[in-house]
Amino acid sequence: KEVMRDTINSAIRRLREEIEPDPDHPTYIQTVRGSGYKLVLPDVSS
Predict the structure, then answer these.
(1) Which CATH architecture has domain 2-39?
(2) What residue spans define the domains of the chain?
(3) Which pLDDT score, from 0 to 100, does residue 2 have?
């Protein structure tokens, strides 16, 4: 279970490094405490 969690955390970290303007303060991939992660897409409806 711990290995799986570490694998997921590592994958999320790599994704953030690729897509986030500032990976230390993510806006697209947010951590939801006690639940996991949430993808937040920018509003492009304008």
Answers:
(1) Orthogonal Bundle (1.10)
(2) 2-39
(3) 82
